[in-house]
């Protein structure tokens, strides 16, 4: 089986070692800050993100390959913004490019977090975030996030299988519209079926909200430092 | 013991099970035979309470599955036909631990069960591997380990040898036999009885959701089951 996009990859890099709570917090804080960031700051955060991803074993090439569909959508969005902006073509293109660049950086951050964080650790992190809240079943929410983190790559895997099945029977000779239509329809059906199977698999093994855990999260000083750096980046992004 | 009392189950407007009455004794080794769509998988899912009857009842140790589904799942461990789809975690270790975690066990106990289960299926070397890196045979062994780690009384296996090579088939059969010798009830749904025919003490043939034949493998295969879409094992030809 080929490793699907966005799936966790085992490793012992610094980013792998950072506590899931720290990584998720940093992701949220920096992503929010990016919505205020100027073009220059967005570029700077993009460079930092690239370096962090690289140190975690995620190459720019595989990132671009895995999110190319999103990039196409962003390019289309940028062009649409440029031609429809009342301020004119160039200001519209610049604004669209900056907005798209923010999205790209956020996607790269999320990709790096998902590639270096076990879904089980995401579950524990979500549980610990929700634990103080009254009348919230933190175990159920944690499992929901972890299952989503596990399921997301499976959708890409299904998409690859559908494409391979199409190619194997010379489906590439069909029109672009016909290919997209057949892939989207088949993928939708298979995704729902896969979701159903994952839910059954969880249920078959006596899923309980009273569950315990093999692993635990351990907060270390490096995690605090990681959060502080992320918050500093966010403050700079908002202020500059 | 598992008892089916007049169980009917409707799926997409058709009766997947139709008036099934059956008793499976503790410690037994039962083969569920029949062609594709005969109701084998549906029957297994009722044992694990993934499905509950539209009519009749399924009792696991005297308790109806529609009253205590979780209890049934603790007692009956099910391995799906598509083992890959049963893997819910990102490493073999985490996946095998998933069931024991659901039982709310202490960390040391979970660790012990994980080690024991992966060792039982010969998958210790795979412990830290991602499921995406495993072959079909390895995935099936990991899926079996995930169920064994819960230490159920009953193993319900859906086509457990599908897509396995000789080595993989041998490993799974050995583990299933070992579990049965340890006192676990084993129910195997298959359309190919060959590897299990000398091990099972009973065979139940399903046809259109009903029990068509019930007896020892010897009795049934001597008569031949080709009419039910079941290949006759070599030793009976």
From TrEMBL, chain B:
Pfam families recorded: ABC_tran
Residue span, ABC transporter domain: 2-233
Family matches, as SUPFAM superfamilies: P-loop containing nucleoside triphosphate hydrolases
Keyword set, alphabetical order: ATP-binding, Cell membrane, Membrane, Nucleotide-binding, Translocase, Transport
Domain of life: Archaea
Entry-linked PANTHER family: ENERGY-COUPLING FACTOR TRANSPORTER ATP-BINDING PROTEIN ECFA1 (PTHR43553:SF24), HEAVY METAL TRANSPORTER (PTHR43553)
The protein's name: ATP-binding cassette domain-containing protein
Species, as recorded: Halorutilus salinus
């Amino acid at each position: 089986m080929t490793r699907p996009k966005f799936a966790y990859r085992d490793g012992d890099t610094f980013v792998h070692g950072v506590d899931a709570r720290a990584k998720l917090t940093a992701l949220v804080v920096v992503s929010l800050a990016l919505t205020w960031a100027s073009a220059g700051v967005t570029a700077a955060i993009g460079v930092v993100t690239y370096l962090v991803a690289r140190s975690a074993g995620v190459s720019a090439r595989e990132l671009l390959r895995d999110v190319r569909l999103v990039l196409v959508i962003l390019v289309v969005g940028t062009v649409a913004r440029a031609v429809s902006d009342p301020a004119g073509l160039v200001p519209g293109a610049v604004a669209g490019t900056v907005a798209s660049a923010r999205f790209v950086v956020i996607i790269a951050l999320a990709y790096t977090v998902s590639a270096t964080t076990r879904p089980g650790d995401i579950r524990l992190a979500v549980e610990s975030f929700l634990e103080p809240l009254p009348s919230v079943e933190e175990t159920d929410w944690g499992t929901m996030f972890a299952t989503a983190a596990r399921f997301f790559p499976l959708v890409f895997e299904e998409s690859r299988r559908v494409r391979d099945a199409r190619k194997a029977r010379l489906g590439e000779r069909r029109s672009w519209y016909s290919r997209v239509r057949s892939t989207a329809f088949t993928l939708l059906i298979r995704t729902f079926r896969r979701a159903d199977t994952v839910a059954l698999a969880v249920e078959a093994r006596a899923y309980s909200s009273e569950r315990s855990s093999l692993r635990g999260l351990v907060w270390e000083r490096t995690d605090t430092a990681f959060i502080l750096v992320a918050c500093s980046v966010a403050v700079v992004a908002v202020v500059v | 013991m598992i008892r089916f009392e007049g169980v009917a189950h409707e799926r997409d407007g058709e009766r997947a099970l139709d008036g099934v009455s059956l008793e499976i004794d503790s410690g037994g080794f039962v083969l569920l035979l029949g062609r594709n769509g005969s109701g084998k998988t549906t029957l297994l899912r009722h044992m694990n309470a993934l499905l509950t009857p539209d009519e009749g009842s399924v009792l696991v140790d005297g308790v109806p599955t529609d009253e205590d589904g979780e209890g049934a799942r603790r007692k009956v461990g099910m391995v799906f036909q598509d083992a890959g789809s049963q893997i819910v975690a990102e490493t073999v270790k985490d996946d095998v631990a998933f069931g024991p975690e659901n039982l709310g066990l202490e960390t040391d106990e979970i660790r012990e069960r994980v080690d024991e289960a992966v060792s039982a299926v010969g998958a210790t070397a795979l412990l830290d591997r991602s499921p995406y890196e495993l072959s079909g045979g390895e995935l099936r062994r990991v899926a079996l380990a995930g169920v064994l780690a819960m230490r159920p009384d009953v193993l319900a296996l859906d086509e457990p040898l599908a897509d396995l090579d000789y080595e993989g088939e041998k490993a799974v059969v050995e583990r299933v036999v070992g579990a049965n010798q340890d006192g676990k009830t084993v129910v195997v749904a298959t359309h190919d009885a060959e590897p299990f025919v000398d091990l099972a003490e009973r065979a139940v043939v399903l046809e259109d959701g009903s029990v068509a034949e019930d007896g020892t493998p010897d009795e049934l295969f001597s008569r031949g089951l080709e009419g039910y879409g079941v290949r006759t094992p070599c030793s009976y030809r």
